[in-house]
Predict the structure.
Amino acid sequence: MFDLTGRSAIVTGAANGIGKAIAEIFLQHGAKVLATDLDADDLSAAFTDSDECATVTGDITDASVQQQVIDTASSRLGGIDILVNNAGIVIAGDYETLTDEQWDRIMDVNLRSIFRLTREALPLLKKSGSSRVINLGSIMSDVAGPGLSIYGTSKHAVAGLTKGMAVDFGQYGITANYLQPGSIVTKLSAPFMDDPEFKAYWEAKAPIGRLGEAHEVAVAALFLASKEAQFVSGTGLNVDGGAIVQF
Ligand SMILES: NC(=O)c1ccc[n+]([C@@H]2O[C@H](COP(=O)([O-])OP(=O)(O)OC[C@H]3O[C@@H](n4cnc5c(N)ncnc54)[C@H](O)[C@@H]3O)[C@@H](O)[C@H]2O)c1
């Protein structure tokens, strides 16, 4: 089950955390992967460019980087069967201190890049006949958190965008789904977890009783990427140890 042999995948934000774990699990299951990230040092530390794993460094909000990603996937991997729009950032702050620039940057990285990269990848995704789009939402695609109004808005919008993709792309055999991680131990969540109260809150919020690990989100991505998940589309999958359903 979940064999990705012969499949080609793009993973954005692949140098760290959840994206890195997704790229790794896809490679382990036989896929060829294009791993792309803004951070050149972290990307080269995570993946060596090879026949199985092409790497592209750049800011995924940049149209020319997006084009380079698509062109490299086409020339080096022979197409795109799986697109994982994972790159994301979080900026938190009291509502009255949040700036227009922060709004624009979060929306650019967390939302607009997904809209654009998926649009540019669509001709290749259509060719595959059984493609998968997997977007990174969050538990904040459903609920809100203190200081996280902009981030939460971007993640709610990822849910809406993914549902639209599922409706528009189904005719091409393409499924589109979004992952909803809870509190996962990564670089992104580290500054929040430095606060012992915050950490203890999220450990207790999950009935499983702990924070999650990036590879536990990657397993869910592997399922959504698989041929076996061909009738799963337009939905969000919580990977949060049950945090969101516990009152
Ligand atoms: N960690 C969590 O608790 C958590 C929870 C819910 C959702 N998520 C989502 O999962 C995704 C991955 O998060 P993570 O925790 O692994 O984060 P992370 O910070 O560990 O890794 C994110 C990667 O994306 C890259 N990146 C950021 N902006 C980029 C850009 N403009 N262009 C290219 N690459 C860029 C970073 O360099 C980094 O390597 C994000 O969309 C995040 O919102 C994370």
The pocket of nicotinamide-adenine-dinucleotide is lined by residues 12-13, 15-19, 37-39, 42, 59-61, 86-89, 109, 136, 138, 181, 183-184, 186-189 (CB under 6 Å). The beta strands are 8-12, 32-37, 53-57, 82-85, 132-136, 175-181, 184-185, 212-213, 236-239.
